[in-house]
Amino acid sequence: MKTMTLHAIIIGEKAKAPLHSVESVRVVKGRGLEGDRYFYGEGTFNKPQLSQDVREISIIPYETLALCNERLDTNLDFLDLRRNLVIKNFDASLLEGKTFMLGTAEFKIVRTCPPCRYLSRLLGEDMMQGLKYIGGHRARIVRSGQISVGDQIEVKEKSL
């Protein structure tokens, strides 16, 4: 099994605003990444009718960017994809029904993160096609902690 490693942490303070990378961030259960729009309730999808427990963390495999750019014949960057964590060698199948550690924080995958029309409108590209079946995953925070670029995923036992 290849080691799953945190390649980038991406946050932004407001909906629709450009995002930026940070080397380390505090992760807060029930809120998300400190400094991110969803942490502050300022995300595009922070609406009462939408379940917020799936908005804490978004994850995309590092390898997705190249495939997306190939599909669309573009030169997009990880910042454009608007996911929080970019993880090299990410394999969600190894995390099904389990929690996992990154740094001192603990997470659990809750569902996939398919592309949306919002991202297509924002980028002026057909992101529904570019990220079809490879849009990443959403996770909830099981335990607060600190994560840093370079941290490796440690898979825990099956969750109850």
The arrangement of helices and strands along the chain is: EEEEEHHEEEHHEEE
Distance between the termini: 24 Å
Return the CATH class: Mainly Beta
Task: Name the CATH superfamily classification.
Answer: PK beta-barrel domain-like
Structural class: alpha+beta
What is the approximate shape? Answer: globular
Helix content: 10-25%
Average pLDDT score:
89
- Strand-residue fraction? 25-35%
Largest sheet: 8 strands, mixed
For the largest sheet, list the strands in their spatial order: 2-1-6-5-9-8-7-11
User: Which consecutive residue ranges, at least 5 long each, have pLDDT under 50?
Assistant: 46-52
In the CATH hierarchy, what is the architecture at level 2?
Answer: Beta Barrel
DSSP summary: helix tally: 4
Radius of gyration, rounded? 15 Å
Number of beta strands: 11
Count of structural domains: 1
Looking at the structure, the CATH topology is M1 Pyruvate Kinase, Domain 3
Structure notes:
- The protein is of the alpha+beta class and 160 residues long.
- It has one domain (5-158): M1 Pyruvate Kinase, Domain 3.
- The protein is built from four helices and eleven strands; from the N terminus they run βββββααβββααβββ.
- The chain has helices at residues 64-72, 78-81, 117-123, 127-130, and strands at 5-11, 20-22, 24-28, 32-33, 57-61, 85-88, 98-102, 105-112, 137-143, 145-148, 154-158.
- The chain has an eight-stranded mixed β-sheet with strand order 2-1-6-5-9-8-7-11, with no helix packed on it. It has a three-stranded antiparallel β-sheet with strand order 4-3-10, with no helix packed on it.
- β1 and β2 form a beta hairpin.
- The two termini are 24 Å apart.
